[in-house]
Amino acid sequence: MDFKAMTGKEIEAFLKDQVSEHYKLYIPKLMEDERSAVQKIGLKLQKKLEKLSTEKERVESLWFYEKELAKEGYRMIAGLDEAGRGPLAGPVVAAAVILPFDLFIDGINDSKKISEKKREKLYDIINEKALAVGVGIVENNVIDEINILRATKRAMGEAVKNLEIKSDFLLIDAVKLTDIKIKQQSVIKGDQKSISIAAASIIAKVTRDRIMNQYHEVFPEYGFVSHKGYGTKEHYESIEKHGITPIHRKSFLQNL
């Protein structure tokens, strides 16, 4: 590629369409260019490449549990996580995700550490790249009947059943599912340690957030679109002013 015959804007437009594997070929040519503006593009590309390399190392470390299980012969390893154990309103949602081995997903992490915009983007990527995705939803009235821990486990069980491919091992964030006869391992803070659990945390979080956004349309005075049903000051003030809704968890509001 002859960058000398291109303007800075043309170079930047060209680089936008290039895969990261080609950056190493372009950086020396950009840095050798006599134009300082082009050299700055080279430096920017170098920093981008370094950042990407660091990110690939981080994501590679998230494959630890899955690769250890692969050594034992497991192939369809599903990560499980939930969203919505703590809120005062709405369902608890669980997700199960089976990923193809060695998949690199830029930015994947515990859903709580990612912005809403980034979660939405990763949600689409995971659904596109995953071998299978299952979701389980347990509503607030059931939570009141059986308690939140049992409801969470029920949602996880539904998520496993809804996988398009049968899992041969479950990696679960801090929970054990005694009713499911599939070998499993509970991982404390698993959404920060396992890529499959991290993927499940994103699917569960985005799914539940979308549900609460829909409830906001029905009960706009409660502000569900902003706090998603969690016990914020705004939420408690809305309850005091308007009372509880059919989607509130009465067992969580006994003191009121």
Give a quick precis of the structure.
The protein is α/β, with parallel strands linked by helices and 256 residues long. The chain folds into two domains: 3-61, no CATH class; 64-251, Ribonuclease H-like superfamily/Ribonuclease H (Nucleotidyltransferase, domain 5). It contains ten helices and five strands.
Indicate the topology.
Blueprint lengths: L7 H9 L6 H10 L3 H26 L2 H8 L5 E7 L8 E7 L17 H14 L2 E7 L1 H7 L1 H14 L7 E5 L10 E4 L7 H24 L5 H4 L5 H10 L14
Parallel strand pairs: 1-4, 4-5
Antiparallel strand pairs: 1-2, 2-3
Q: How many domain modules?
A: 2
**What does the main sheet amount to?**
5 strands, mixed
Q: What is the count of DSSP helices, taking H or I runs of 4+ residues? A: 10
Order of helices and strands: HHHHEEHEHHEEHHH
For the record, give the distance between the C-alpha atoms at the N and C termini, rounded to a whole number: 69 Å
Strand order of the largest sheet: 3-2-1-4-5
What does this structure look like?
This is Ribonuclease HII. Its EC number is 3.1.26.4. One of its GO terms (molecular function) is RNA binding. This protein has 256 residues and is of the alpha/beta class. It has 2 domains: 3-61, no CATH class; 64-251, Nucleotidyltransferase, domain 5 (2-Layer Sandwich), CATH 3.30.420.10. The chain is built from 10 helices and 5 strands, in the order ααααββαβααββααα. It has helices at 8-16, 23-32, 36-61, 64-71, 116-129, 140-146, 148-161, 195-218, 224-227, 233-242, and strands at 77-83, 92-98, 132-138, 169-173, 184-187. It has a 5-stranded mixed beta sheet with strand order 3-2-1-4-5. Helix 2 packs antiparallel against helix 3, helix 5 (116-129) crosses helix 8 and helix 6 packs across helix 7. The mean pLDDT is 96.
